[in-house]
Amino acid sequence: MKKLYLLLFAALFCIAAAQPIKDYTGFKEASAIKQRGLEGRYDSLIKAADIDEYLKHLSAHPHHLGSANDRANADYILQKFRSWGYEARIDTFYALFPTPKFRLLEEISPNTFKAGLAEPALKEDLTSSQTAEQLPTYNCYSADGDVTGELVYVNQGAPADYDDLERMGVDVKGKIIIARYGGSWRGIKPRLGQEHGAIGCIIYSDPKDDGYYQGDVYPKGPYRNENGVQRGSVMDIPLYPGDPLTPGYADTEHAKRLDRKDVTNLLKIPVLPISYQDAKPFLAGLSGQVVPERWKGALPFTYHVGPGPVKAHLKLQFNWDVKPVYDVIATLKGSEYPDEWVIRGNHYDAWVNGADDPISGQAAMLNEAQAIGQLAKEGMRPKRTIVYCAWDGEEEGLLGSTEWVEANATELQQKAVAYINTDATARGFMYAGGSHTLQKLVNEVATDVQDPEMNISILDRAKARQVIDAKPKEQKEMLSSSEYKIDALGSGSDFSPFLQHVGIAALDIAFGGEGNGGEYHSIYDSYDMFKRFKDPGFQYEVVIAKTAGRVTLRMANADVLPFNFQDFYSMINGYATEMMKNMEEMRTTTEVNNQLVKEKYYTRSSDPTITYVAPTAKDVVPYLDFSALQNALAALKTSAAQFESLSVGAEQLPETTIHQLNILLYQSERKLLMETGLPDRGWYKQGIYAPGYYQGYGVKTLPAVREAIENRKWQLAQQQSGLTAKMLLAYSKQIDAAAELLKKK
């Protein structure tokens, strides 16, 4: 049988050799021809039927962290990896994981109403009836609490919404707030409410966002029905992810743990998610000002801000248990560079059945690993070691990946070449975000994968989508460029500890845009839902396996690692220019505001129903000295250009020199770590990409400087500008060291 496989590979190799080779950066010509044949064989091993089997099995039962089904899925994944020839194990950690003991939400005046807080089973959804195994609807890491107060509607509970509330003269101190999902990560809503003095928080799903306003609701269509509830964590991930009790170090069985009262990334107020069926009586009963236009949802009544006259009672109690976290780690040792690791990951834990989030990504990754394992059995072993990771505890706060990275940080910084992440995926367009040094690699891979519906490359389809979604002034520039620009990464999935804590270049890849729905974190995220609406036929499951698998194989087999520093410079320079422009706009806005205050000018919204109070004076925006940062960017531009010009033909260098070069290349990302981390949240050390403190999952680029400016901390902004410049100069020196090796050609 092995002989037959080798003959088939030889045939594919000959076909590939007959065609011109391009877009294999870092490969010698002979290596590129071999790689293309390898990828052709790889494609033949990716099967929709296998992905279907894995998805159906892993989503057959609810499998939240700490459950018997979670452990059963870990064992299933472990055995699959072993059967495919990997050295596989389970690394176990022990993390704080609260689950509900008591939940009550009721209106006590002027009317009485008790929220149902339940999602009913549907005959059209086979697994929705597994009530005994399901976690109830709740927000993980909410505080215990028993609070009563007037209700205030705060829209999406984002910073801009509190600016509106201030202008309307509405104070949430001592009140219970009700916010709708969207606009910001869920954990920001209660945290901002807490900072403004709220005593409790309710989060509901408005039909405008993912319900009947968008389309037919489940089971007729994919959107959230009136009883659907979005579970989710409200741990303060922008401060630090992972086990709250072990910040910055691994939560092994005997690790020293903080007392819960001393933990800094947990809420002090109770918070609960509800359906829009349960939200109706609370919102409909509010009085006060009519909300601004952008605050309006799609429920059949006029939205008011409050406060009151609705008075709510919210009581929550939790079991604050420590539960095991099972990370499945599978290794395929490299044939030439076993101590250079290409790490590939996707989590497998879910709030309930999780067919889409995360099993769609996990099932595709398993088929990918199966195919690469088969290639190895046929004699085509990768040059570098490939490490597959099936993470546990992602939903609660990136528990499995964070603890594993913290436990292995020293070795990872020595050996990790890159981390490639996937999560939920569906029908539609490619999305890619990550380290901009890998942007060219993404473009080259995406050129070689076909979109199954449009019969064009996934690159062309993704670029078309970017142009359509862009602002008019940006579209012309994008149309003239042949490159797909990957996004910067904030947080929200398992790439975060690799990229932002230990400085490993990372990518996050997904497909979507045509499989939208409202099943997210509900009991209706099921196999039945996925097969009907998310990706019928599993075509895009196959596509993501082909895409992520190619990225993994090219990183594993490249003669010279395909890092592109000019792409990196271009994007970082753009971020810096944008940041400085925003500061100029802030200066102008502040001057106008203060003039209005001086003249005692009272203004109103274009909406006549909203009463606005007088603006308050703001401190003057000073002129900061960005010369050090600008000089560092100029040095980076020079270093990147020099490396690019010298790198042509780098594959022809002696083997020992190539090995030294590759170490410099993959360790370059470590130079982007700031020694003390970001101000007030030192776990995040990456100086280019971080989740915004008031955005959650959303990214802030050049975060140390940008957030200091946004928070009007001018001395801190000046200090961090200098530290960021120092970081970029160290990065440029690493590129220069790599360039010196290239001069030996």
Describe this entry's structure for a reader.
It is a single chain. The chain has 745 residues and is of the alpha/beta class. It has three domains: 328 residues, Aminopeptidase; 224 residues, Glucose Oxidase, domain 1, CATH 3.50.30; 178 residues, Transferrin receptor-like, dimerisation domain (Transcription Elongation Factor S-II, Chain A), CATH 1.20.930.40. Helices cover 40% and strands 16% of the residues. The chain contains 23 helices and 16 strands. The strands form three sheets. Strands 1, 2, 4, 5, 6, 8, 9, 10, 11, 12, 13 and 14 form a twelve-stranded mixed sheet that branches. Strands 3-7 form a two-stranded parallel sheet. Strands 15-16 form a two-stranded antiparallel ribbon. A hairpin with a 7-residue loop joins strand 15 and strand 16. Helix 2 packs across helix 9, helix 3 crosses helix 9 and helix 14 runs antiparallel to helix 15. The longest helix has 34 residues.
Brief account:
The protein is 40% helix and 16% strand. By secondary structure, it is of the alpha/beta class.
CATH superfamily of the largest domain: Zn peptidases
The unreliable regions are: 1-20
Task: Using the CA coordinates, give the radius of gyration.
Answer: 26 Å
CATH topology of the largest domain, anyone? Aminopeptidase
Structural class: alpha/beta
Subunit organisation of the chains = single chain
